[in-house]
Each structure stands twice: as structure tokens, then as C-alpha cells.
């Protein structure tokens, strides 16, 4: 280091990228370094890339807020890449703390952002109904293991990014009560995965009405519904036209029983659906299967008890359904659901039943059951688990 000219000593004060991680420093030393950097940089407004990776949980939210605010609240920010990771590790003798991020405020100052990547102990605050979010240059939005307040927050963000190309969510939590995250209570909704990709229109130019030249290529989602709530419904409304592959877990009867009576939610692009049902009849079937006119493949996985199936089956014709797989942890006695799909799926090609046990009488009834499908070859597969 002594061979380097002293004129390079303060060059860092004008660099356009700040890439900082605390696992390369001794404990508590990183805080002093970070304070020094944000205090002595000559022009934070010219920083284009900011990456902060914190694996030490002892800083506390006020310290992290001060660092981030100095970079994102500048009136003429040139920030293009915003990446923050805060470790979710629980430290003994320290109160649980999370960084609460207000993206609606960033939207005002960070108009040049192209990438937002957030992970760890971060809570994205709910965006008020009367607030419009607009990131005109944003192309990549990634969230991993973060908490989100409000069922409409993601939809607000998606609708305000006209040039978005990649939107990826992994193992994130959604709840209407921000305190639930701090108290380690089970959130109302868990998004295991949500992946959306936007493609440029063939013309490559904006429409006459000024709309974006990017169009959604329907993606995939895996969602676990823990509580019956408006948050879950708001999220499902947001993504109903965005996904072609959907896995929905732990669905609750009451959640789907009386919602959306006017039929506003239609899963227009959904082609592959996996529904993991709880132990009682689920009204999720009419809400999902009954409103997915282009469904091609369906997997139903249920608990041991599942009675009165005829009461909750959707009264529609599954005109495009080709494959049905039913997974039963106990004995298979639900002949009604077999009859339903054989009679209503007009082009059904494959019916797969995975069960714990089945009587010879039931096996014969399934094989001999009349079906509406005229497709050949047609196969019924009985798999004893």
C-alpha cells in the first residue's frame, strides 16, 4: 500500500458505486466505516449503484434507516441499482428489529432505478390507496424472505413499472398487521414463489395511448393461505390474470365460500393448477377450477377426511382439461369426484388416482364408469401408495 501515490487516497469519495458488506470487517467496525462513507462522500446524488449486505443483527433499524435515507431521499438521485440484504438471524439478548421500507417515498426521488433487490429482515410498508407508485425505468424487481404489509401492495408496484422485465418473489410473507411480523406470528399469506416475465412487443415501440411496450408472459406462483382474510383475496385478485401455473396450499373453506359473488375473478391464463386441500370440503374448487376456462392439468391433494364432495364441485364443463391427478393420503372412497371429471372433462386423456388403499369394488366402479371424453387413448392409472 505504501507504493501507491497519496493522490489516490480520497478517490473513493467520488466513486459512483457503493458496494459494502459487513462480514469483511471486525464486529462493530463496519458501522464506523459506513458512517464515514455516507458522511464524507463528495456527492451521494451521483451514486448509481448501492449494495448493502448486513449479516450483523446488532445495528438496529434507526442506523440502517439513516444509511439508506441518505442515498434514497436526495432530490436528484441517479441511483440505478438498489440492493439490500439484512440477515434474519436472531441474536440473543437483542430485541427483534426489522427495517421498514417505504417504496412510495423512494418512488418520488429514485426515478432512474433499474434494479430493486431486497432480502432478509425487511418490511415493505403498505402503499396507501390514494398514492400512485411509478418507477419509469425499473426492469428487475426481486424479493426474497421479506415481509409485505397489505394485499394490494404488490399489485401497486407492478402497475407502476412500465418497463419491468423480471419480477421474482421467493419465500415472502404478506399480512395486514405489520406487528405480526415482529412478534413472529404466522402471516396470513406466504408466497413461496411468484415469477413473472415481461416481453417486449414485436413492434418494439410504445402504443399510441402511451402504454408500455412490455407485455406480461403469464408466469408461475406457489401460495400458502394461512388465515381467512381480505389480504389473501386481494393478492389472488392481483395475480389471477398473471399466472399460468399455480400451486395453492392450505386453502380454507370460509375464505372462498362467500367471496366474489359477482364473478369478477377469472383465471383466464391458468393452465396448470395444484390445490392442496385441508381435511374438510373446500369451496376453493368452484373458485379456482370453476373459473379457469383454459385449465389443462389439475392436481388435487387432500387429507384423510373429505366428505360431501358433490356439494362443492363446480357446475361447469371442463372443456380443455386433459389430465387430472388426485392424491389421497387415506383410503379412496370419493366416487363423486371421479364421476364428475369423467362426465365434465370432454377431452380428458388421463386420470391418475394415488391413494393409501382402495377396495376391489371401488376399483371396478372407477374402471367401468362412463365418461364424456371421446379421446383415444384414454388411461386411468391407480397408484397404491
Write up this protein.
21% of the residues lie in helices and 29% in strands. The chain has helices spanning 29-40, 61-72, 103-109, 153-159, 179-182, 230-239, 253-257, 284-288, 335-344, 360-368, and strands at 17-21, 49-54, 81-86, 99-101, 115-120, 122-124, 140-144, 147-149, 166-175, 189-200, 214-225, 243-251, 272-277, 297-302, 323-328, 350-355, 379-384. It has a 17-stranded mixed sheet that branches. Helix 1 (29-40) links the parallel strand 1 (17-21) and strand 2. The termini are far apart. It comes from Hibiscus sabdariffa (roselle). This is FBD domain-containing protein. Residues 314-380 form the FBD domain. It holds the Pfam family FBD.
Order of helices and strands: EHEHEEHEEEEHEHEEHEHEHEEHEHE
Number of strands: 17
Mean residue pLDDT: 79
- The fraction of residues assigned to DSSP E strands is 25-35%
General form: elongated
Task: Give the number of helices.
Answer: 10
Low-confidence stretches: 206-210
- Structural class of the helices, strands and pairings? alpha/beta
Rg over CA atoms: 26 Å
Distance between the termini: 67 Å
Helix content: 10-25%
Instruction: Let me know the largest β-sheet.
Output: 17 strands, mixed
Structural topology:
Layout: E1 17-21, H1 29-40, E2 49-54, H2 61-72, E3 81-86, E4 99-101, H3 103-109, E5 115-120, E6 122-124, E7 140-144, E8 147-149, H4 153-159, E9 166-175, H5 179-182, E10 189-200, E11 214-225, H6 230-239, E12 243-251, H7 253-257, E13 272-277, H8 284-288, E14 297-302, E15 323-328, H9 335-344, E16 350-355, H10 360-368, E17 379-384
Parallel strand pairs: 1-2, 2-3, 3-5, 4-6, 5-7, 6-8, 7-9, 8-9, 11-12, 12-13, 13-14, 14-15, 15-16, 16-17
Antiparallel strand pairs: 9-10, 10-11
Helix pairs in contact: 1-2
